[in-house]
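Quick one, probably user error.
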């Protein structure tokens, strides 16, 4: 499999590739050697994806901290969200 030495791809492409690997493994049509190779590639992709998620979480936390280092939690305001109760939401504590 030549994908092991390719350049880094975006997160969505990594997840899509993982889904393809899982489908191939679940099909039961791979030889033992091919299944092991696919599994190894899946482990590498999973580790890469986890590192990206961890990095993104750190960036979000850094961008969400106030001057005292506390998290400034605000809910996502979708297009149909009202602004009446948005003032109270900044006082919520994060689940972590």
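Nope, works fine. Designed sequence:
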């Amino acid at each position: 499999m030549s994908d092991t030495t390719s350049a880094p791809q975006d997160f969505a492409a990594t997840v899509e590739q993982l889904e393809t690997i899982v489908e191939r493994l679940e099909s039961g049509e791979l030889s033992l050697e091919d299944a092991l190779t696919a599994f190894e590639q899946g482990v590498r992709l999973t580790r890469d994806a986890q590192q990206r998620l961890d990095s993104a979480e750190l960036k979000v936390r850094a961008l969400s901290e106030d001057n005292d280092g506390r998290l400034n939690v605000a809910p996502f305001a979708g297009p149909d969200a009202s602004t009446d109760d948005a003032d109270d939401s900044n006082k919520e504590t994060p689940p972590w």
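DSSP finds three helices and no strands in the chain.
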